[in-house]
Design a protein that fits this description.
Layout lengths: L2 E3 L6 E3 L2 E5 L6 H10 L8 E11 L2 E10 L8 H10 L25 E9 L2 E8 L15 E9 L4 E4 L7 H11 L5 E6 L7 H10 L7 E5 L1 H11 L8 E5 L5 E3 L5 E6 L9 E5 L4 E5 L16 H17 L3 H15 L12 H18 L6 H6 L1 H4 L4 E4 L9 H21 L1 E6 L5 H15 L3 E6 L5 H10 L2 E5 L9 H11 L2 H4 L2 E8 L4 H12 L3 E2 L4 E4 L4 H26 L11 H6 L4 E2 L1 E7 L2 E7 L2 E5 L4 E7 L13 E6 L6 H7 L15 E3 L5 E3 L4 E13 L2 E13 L8 E2 L8
The protein binds flavin mononucleotide.
Length: 742
Amino acid sequence: MAASVCVSCGASAPASTFFASTRDCTSLSSHRLSFCRSKFALKNGSFFTQKKGESQSGIPALRINAVNGGNFGAVTGRLIEEEAKSLAVAGDQSTVSTGSPPPTPAPIKKETDVRVVQVAKDTLTLRGRSTDRLKYEVEYGLKRGSTNNSYIIQGATATALIDVMDQAFAEAFVKALTSAVNLASLNYLVLGHFSPKRVESLKALLKALPNQGAPIEIFCSNPAAQLVKSLLLDDGLENTYKIRNVRAGDVLDLGGGHELRFVLTPTPRWPDGMFTYDSLTQLLFSQKFFSAHVCEEDDFDIGGWDAYGEDWRFYFECMLAPSPKQANMALERLNIVAQYAKPSYKEKKGVDVVKEDMKYIFSTVLRSLNLPVSKSLLSEGLVDKLITTAICPIHGPIVRSTVTELVREYGVWTFDRLKQSEEATVAVIYASAYGNTTALAQAISRGISKAGVGVDTLNVEICSTEELKASLQRCSGFIIGSPTLGGHMPTPIQNALGVILVDENAKRLPCGVFGSFGWSGEAVDMIEQRLKDCDFNFAFPTIRCKFKPTEATLQVCEESGTDLAQAVKRLKVKKGSDAAPKFVVASNVEQAVGRVVGSLCVLTAKSGDAESAMLASWVSQASFVPPGLTIAVAKDRAVEGLVLVGAKFVVNVLGQNKSSAVAKELLKPFKPGEKRLEGLETKEASNGGFIIKDAISWMECTVKSRLETGDHWLLYATVEAGNLEDEKTLTAIHHRKTGSRY
Ligand SMILES: Cc1cc2nc3c(=O)[nH]c(=O)nc-3n(C[C@H](O)[C@H](O)[C@H](O)COP(=O)(O)O)c2cc1C
């Protein structure tokens, strides 16, 4: 029986066992590589069980046993985790399965397909569509489905494919690709983004390529190249591809005027990010930028801002707002693509030309209207320089009619985030091998930024010690997160922790610890202990998450982030309090506004295993047909993440003389994720919210739209069901003395 060997320390084990020791396997890339190597043990269709704490020569180690008869279709960490979960290897249990495999859980039915659509001259898109939200980007709250876009550009002399799809589409992707182009003519693959979740599609593509052809040349950034190499190791596919690390200024000429230029756009979350620009069609393949998780019938942004504005904004908030510096850098680099744009409209003929010209004229008119644009953007002329026919993102609709508006909004959002960071910033320091700790970091970041504090995201796998030190000097709080790999924290986290522990400024700051683990979770314990030993100041209880976070865990993260941001703001106020007057008399305006009254209600909402509630008095009827309400929700409110567009919730109206007990219960301080309705008698509504027994009436609602109104979100929601429970009692009214408080 052949042996499999630990990639770093060389420990060997029989072929049926993959053995990962921790002595040297502390680098994240070596862990990813370990998984790749684990295929030695899995070739014959086997699945994992895990045994905690086995060691060789006193080295804590993970033993993953391959048991015959299981089903193992993919090699990504995520899948391995889920296999492990389905085997119910719980927490601390030390079990090695030797018997027959457990029953396979029924697969979750997802409506997915891949379709081919013409985007521009010689350019097609393959659109993988799922009505369900796919597994990636778990912290993403809107549930409007997912799309995954790849693109094909057929030049006069060569053809390039831009990106491969998520594993959910692997089979359909290759099928659709085969129907759209002759695979023998595919010369280049441009990877603007790559992750372990895309390796299945890449392998399926490489296997489908005709044997006798030249290897396909993969153009990608250095981080993507490393990942591709490690994930394709031992697959016997080495002769089917070669990799070209893209450098600034590289051009890929496909003939017929299709010259592809590349712009490297690394962010902490996607260090491999790269834009591609075709100067002939003026298409910008923008990867995660300008993306949205939404699956509509239309392939283009028909309906414009009204149809997709919320999705684009929410995607930005979740995915890019935590790294405004890098987002800004990427936007600035868009300038360089415009210099290659050709005035191609003149030569074109036919209806499409008219349409394109209309679009061009329209976008020019929009720009000339001089709508409010961030000053820095205007002075740098970004909007003027960015003239593309369309933006082709990796997720969501192809942006054709809203290009100018979307780019401008991106500039404004980024500018706002950068401004927020100038006042107070929390450093979010983490590493993640398989994305689970990233998801926690992202959710905490959302909680921080919705409370009005900036975020500086530092993925320690790619940031330098100098960057970390500089961020610690600047920040007003920090959090540190780590996965547990082989019983330890990975080396980059150990180094970062070393820097934090000797930083005198960091000791005075509010901080927090978080991390994902599989069964023992030593990394988080170690980090917490070492910070406690040095008297660091914890703003929220340490977050420990087993494998992938659920919605409830993400809710804990978001609320913890908000708590930390509020601690930061309190400290800032305290510091400035000597200069500030202790007591401010309500101004005339505040007193006047304070006479506006509202009915006292309780809003309750649930999503998956997350639930929340809030006392609300800024509630008004907004329409007769359909019956509709507006409700103002403060941006840093815990329930805010559960009332996004499309979400269901319940409004409970409280009665005079019956409201104080309910109000008192909901105004208590709550820990992150704590159930807020536990002390009240409730029953579940049919839409998932909660009906409070003491309410005089209740309404089941759906959020239709959200309007940003200063420090609140104004929800417009329609009422689908409701009941009057107590017709005698009048509605409780919330009277106030000032409009500066509730
Ligand atoms: C090679 C390897 C070793 C691991 N070792 C441990 C361990 O010793 N203890 C533990 O609790 N979890 C262990 N895990 C599970 C990871 O901590 C878990 O998958 C976690 O979700 C990874 O977080 P990330 O996605 O942020 O990288 C291990 C996973 C891998 C792949």
